[in-house]
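Backbone-to-sequence.
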């Protein structure tokens, strides 16, 4: 297997406009329990060179993420922090204020509508635009939006979403959604880029990893990066966190990419979970 040491050079970034750079490699915190486990995992990620941390109100670990950020000694302006508005709570300004208090921050780098809700998308988006204008969220975006909802949102938006965060991996290769977002300048960010571990034993992925001298997880992450996505893998194990960062010093061939593309079992639409 390839080395699990993470690169010390800065990770590549995606330009979201207005001088906002989002590292392509992020650390996800979904299902990491608040308290010591979340704090330790985020600390290990920062130690390994991650400079992009993703959390959400519904994860209930924002306070632990903030504690890890403060204790790391990494300057605030060197870490890209994302959190998400729970849309059934009607006041995103109040919810962001609460998130900022839990995180111990003055602003977040990216604030997302966590999932679409009928009748709320347009009103909620205009409220996020106001938060962006106030500097409380440097960039705003959505999560779990498919093409149809994005189309309706873009028709109403003064400031289009910078990011759409969706489940995306070789087995959930949402071509239509990726093509649409690319055409409209929306960065696609992959959550569950390792398919929650279920695809790591797939024979195709294992064979490519063996040929590359890499781990299956590294192959899946590299596939997403070469498809132009940012990724937010999650782990609570220090060595896996480090290994997941070592994806910028190798390249998958066209044949490898095609073989991974063929694993897709999605309908390509990007429908929200």
């Amino acid at each position: 297997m390839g080395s699990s040491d993470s690169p010390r050079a800065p990770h590549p970034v995606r330009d979201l406009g207005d001088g906002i750079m989002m590292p392509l490699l992020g650390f996800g915190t979904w299902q990491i329990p608040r308290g010591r486990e979340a704090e330790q995992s985020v600390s290990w990620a920062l130690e390994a060179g991650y400079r992009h941390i993703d959390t959400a109100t519904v994860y209930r670990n924002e306070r632990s993420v903030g504690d890890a950020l403060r204790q790391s000694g990494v300057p605030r302006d060197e870490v890209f922090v994302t959190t998400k508005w729970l849309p059934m709570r009607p006041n995103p300004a109040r919810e962001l204020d609460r998130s900022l208090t839990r995180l111990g921050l003055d602003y977040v780098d990216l604030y997302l509508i966590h999932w679409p809700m009928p009748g709320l998308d347009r009103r909620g988006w205009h409220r996020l635009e106001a938060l962006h204008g106030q500097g409380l969220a440097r960039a705003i975006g959505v999560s779990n939006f498919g093409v149809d909802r994005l189309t309706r949102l873009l028709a109403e938006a003064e400031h289009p979403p910078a990011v759409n965060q969706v489940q995306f991996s070789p087995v959930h290769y949402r071509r239509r959604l990726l093509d649409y977002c690319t055409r409209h300048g929306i960065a696609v960010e992959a959550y569950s880029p390792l398919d929650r571990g279920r695809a790591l034993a797939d024979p195709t992925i294992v064979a490519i990893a063996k040929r590359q001298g890499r781990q299956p997880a590294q192959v899946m992450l590299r596939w997403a990066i070469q498809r132009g996505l940012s990724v937010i893998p999650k782990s609570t194990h220090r060595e896996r966190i480090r290994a997941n960062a070592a994806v910028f010093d190798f390249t998958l061939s066209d044949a490898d990419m095609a073989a991974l593309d063929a694993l897709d079992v999605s309908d390509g639409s990007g429908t929200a979970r």
